[in-house]
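# nightly structure sweep
# worker-07 picked up a monomer target from the shared queue
# config: single-sequence mode, recycle default, output format = structure tokens
# input follows
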Amino acid sequence: YDRLLKLRECGINVVSTYVPWNFHEPHPGQYNFKGDADLFKFMDIAQELGLYVNIRPGPYICSEWDLGGIPYFVLGSRKDGVRLRTMDSRYIAHVQCYFDELLPRLKPYLYENGGPIILVQMENEYGSEKACDNDYMHYLHDLMRKHLGNTVTLYTADGWDMQQLICGAIHDREVLTTVNFGPNSNHESAFHRLRQFQAHGPLVNSEFYPGWLDHWLEPHHCRTSQLVGSEFDKMLSSSMGNVFVNFYMFFGGTNFAFYNGANMPFEPKYQPDPTSYDYDAPLTECGDTTGKYYAIRTSIKRHKPHLIDESLVSKLVNSTKQHYGKVFFKKIVNYPDIKSLATKILMKVPLFTFEELQQDYGFVLYEKTYSNFYHQVELEIKDPRDMVYVFADDKYIGKIYRSVNKKLVLPSFHKIGLLVENMGRVNYGPFLHDYKGIIGDVKLGGDMLSKGADWNIWSLPLNNTQSAKFQDITYKPGPGSLMKGQFTIHGRPADTWVNLSKFDKGVIFVNGRNIGRYWPVAGPQKHLYVPSVFLKSGQNEMIIFEVSAMPGAGELFVDLVDKPDVGSCESYELNKSIFNY
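# output follows
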């Protein structure tokens, strides 16, 4: 409600939202539209506040979301070779089932049926997809028309590059063509290009970028209020006619749990997104207004004063923040006892991928024991996806990362453990078939280990941490351990952030909620956002899974602070030494 109210108060009258397929169908045939996934309550609130809705159901959405919203199970196994975003019958079968479930639910919310939906996007930036399958886009059009009727406006959204519009726009159906561009593009050039494909109709910038996405190991991206406000104002005053603008993002929010995606422009440059999706948007990650927000509002008031409802100004309130202080971790499940949280255990099997294990997110532990003693030797993993935490005889040795280092020297050992973290499936570009786990060869001193069915596997999606059997911490724990602490809140909870400066890399849970990944030494994000609605008055519980480096004695705590830290916009240089432990 708060974010939608602020959107409307700014003078904006349409809210745009993606519909992530894998959020609503996490496993085959298991549909979820309740709780956090209650899309219809969201639209009810929007309509209550006087907002129309632009719905973007995909099936592919990009959106810096794991696999662009496509569920893991659609990939199949590596040998299947399912061709996503095409007329491949295996892919289409999944799309058909999902849309047959979703679209009838949307129909009552269409404008002509008394609801708020005035626009429905088909696919997403399909012009950037190399397949360029026109039959696929026609199939989606016909399926949407079948369920939604012929009245609602369908549209496509693509970059304004010629080739993208050739493949992304639908030229022989009644479908609106729109273009995406940010403040660094010339809006007149973009709209002139659009007119080559669509001679009449509205000029729509369907994704105007007031900020940009972040990646781990890179700086936080920023765009000035002056630049965004100035370019937005130019579009509203354009001599080309009536221009319509959709901000992407106006409010970015947070990649809670494991839903973040990743980019991969080329191999091996894998770029996972952090937990924060602040985006340097007009509303911050916690929903606070910014100078950018007011620059946009000023332009709307100048050009479209009828859209400003001054009565809403008094309702604008930024969230209350609180520094709750230190949370000490006093209970633990040590490595390798985290195996007790496994949802699936397989013995003497090949190196199955996450997808072959029917696992969506989290971690998988691969373990192998040798009758003979392996002396100091080099471990090499050809295609780790994504981060591999290496244990020898249950002692942590170091990590191997997909895009930085793929070798590690091990001491003498009998048993090797490879704890693999899925850090987010690629959501854009030519590498969408991003299977997770150990994909390539595994070698020890040149000897091949990956061939043969002699690995033991534990699936660890970490969706059951509250049921873990914790014990008192009596000595310094090692990496790969799950720890629990408690803290008390007096009165009404407020927004807060977890300062993880004492820790290296892992995941945080608060009151059973997966708050997301942390990796402060890599940046740019240093603090993890915990919204007040995840907290309660009285005793609260925090669980941390630290996978690579434990703090020193007396430092097993985090600090709940009242300020975010999503990183600096200044230049950033990767310190590769962070992979040396």
